[in-house]
Each structure stands twice: as C-alpha cells, then as structure tokens.
Design a protein that fits this description.
The protein has 199 residues and is of the alpha+beta class. Strands 1, 2, 3, 4, 5 and 6 form a 6-stranded antiparallel β-sheet that branches. Strand 3 and strand 4 form a beta hairpin. The protein is globular and about 45 Å long. The termini are far apart. The structure holds heme C. Heme C (HEC) binds next to strand 2, strand 3, strand 5, strand 6 and helix 5.
Length: 199
C-alpha cells in the first residue's frame, strides 16, 4: 500500500515536472512568425523532453533502435521549419548513415534511395499564443526492392509524443501524399530549401 502511494506520488512529480518543462518552452508568438533563431531556441528548450517522450514504453512494430539512435544520425534540418504539410508542425529531420549522402543532395529527379535508408522527423506545434506542444516522430524506412510495391518500398511509421506507436493506414495517411507529390524525387519531401543542411 505504502509502496503504491510512493509510486503514485513519483508519477505525479514526473507529470508535474514534465508540465513545468513544457511551460518553460513558450515561443511567445505563433509558429509561423518565428525566425530561424527563435525556432531553434524553442527546439533547444524542448529537445530533451521530446526525446524522453518518444522513448517511453514499448515500440511494438517499430524498431526501437531507430527511436533510440536517430539523434546521432545526420541532421538534414538547419533549424525547425513548418512547410504546412504534417499538420503545420515545425519539423526537424535526421537521416541514418546509409541514406545521408543521397538525401543531402536534395535532388528533384533520378533519386535512387539505397535500401536500409531510415529517416526520422521530429515535430512540434506552436499555436497562435506561442504555446509549444510536442508532436509525433515520423519515420520512413526504404526496404528491399519489391517488398512493398504499393508504397514504393517505403515503410512508414509514427511514434506519438508519449512514445506509443501510432496505428494507421499508411497508404492513405502517408504514402499517397509522398508518392503523388514527390514521386519524381524518390518519395522524399525534403525540408524547405532555406532550412536544409548541405554538405
Ligand atoms: C499531405 C502530405 C503528407 C502526408 C500525408 C505525410 N507527409 Fe511526410 N512529408 C511531407 C512533406 C511536404 C515533407 C517534407 C517536409 C519538411 O521536412 O519540411 C515530408 C517529410 C517526411 C519525412 C522526412 C523525409 C522526407 O520525405 O523528406 C518523413 C520521415 C515523413 N514525411 C514521414 C511521414 C509519415 C510516417 C506519414 C504518415 C503518418 C507522412 N509522412 C504523411 C508530406 C506529407
């Protein structure tokens, strides 16, 4: 009984500290008004909390090591930018070693993405009042040719801000938009040009 209470209190303290951390990441203005420097400051504030959230709990069908290691991959975003897709959220993209060279060329045609490429994209929202809210971690993995013809051999996955894998119809929720809009560039949307890390 006593132990149970301690656990509840520990949980409460965690929840409260989580809340406090979030409150500290006020942007002060709407997301679309943020300069790159301001967007970076919000990201720096939110960074640890965002990752802690994604890491919570069992990842089930999503390879847990993608979530555990994506921060050590090559960043493709110089600062968080919101292109309007992905629910107006500000985005930060990371590419694993297999895919980094191809991705960072940002070619608009003839893109051949090597199998084993994994791309992770963090997201967070900043509302009209400047309130900051963690968003999902979006993941794309290029699998061997012929394994998933309907999605051009991309596996799409998403982890909710609380770490739960998000169940969805990836064809309609992810693949159709990527293939229809970016089919010529291998299904890749790329960060907006001014936010791209180049080599
Ligand atoms: C309405 C169109 C649309 C839908 C639906 C969509 N995306 Fe995207 N996605 C984009 C755009 C545009 C970009 C590039 C945006 C940026 O990084 O600034 C992008 C980028 C990405 C990236 C980074 C790699 C890249 O393409 O540059 C990942 C990973 C990703 N999306 C995963 C997903 C997943 C998983 C889903 C489904 C849950 C999904 N997307 C649904 C439009 C879409």
């Amino acid at each position: 009984m006593k132990r149970r209470l301690q656990l509840v209190l520990a949980g409460l303290a965690l929840a409260l500290s989580g809340h406090a951390a979030q409150a500290a990441c006020e942007a002060g203005k709407a997301g679309y008004e943020l300069t790159p420097t301001e967007a970076t400051a919000v990201y720096d504030c939110l960074k640890a909390e965002l990752l802690d959230g994604y890491l919570q709990g069992d990842k089930r069908w999503i390879p847990a090591d993608y979530v555990a290691s994506y921060r050590s991959w090559t960043p493709a975003s110089a600062f968080p930018a919101a292109p309007g897709f992905h629910g107006e959220r500000l985005l930060m993209t990371y590419v694993n070693e297999i895919g980094a060279d191809t991705y960072l060329e940002y070619r608009d045609e003839g893109v051949i993405v090597p199998a084993g490429t994994v791309i992770a994209k963090e997201s967070f929202a900043v509302d009209e009042q400047g309130k900051v809210q963690p968003g999902p971690l979006f993941i794309m993995e290029k699998v061997e040719a012929g394994r998933s013809p309907q999605t051009d051999d991309w596996f799409y996955m998403a982890v909710a801000p609380n770490g739960s894998p998000m169940a969805m119809d990836v064809i309609s929720a992810c693949s159709e938009c990527h293939q229809q809009n970016f089919g010529a560039q291998g299904g890749l949307g790329y960060p907006v040009p001014e936010a791209r890390v180049t080599r």
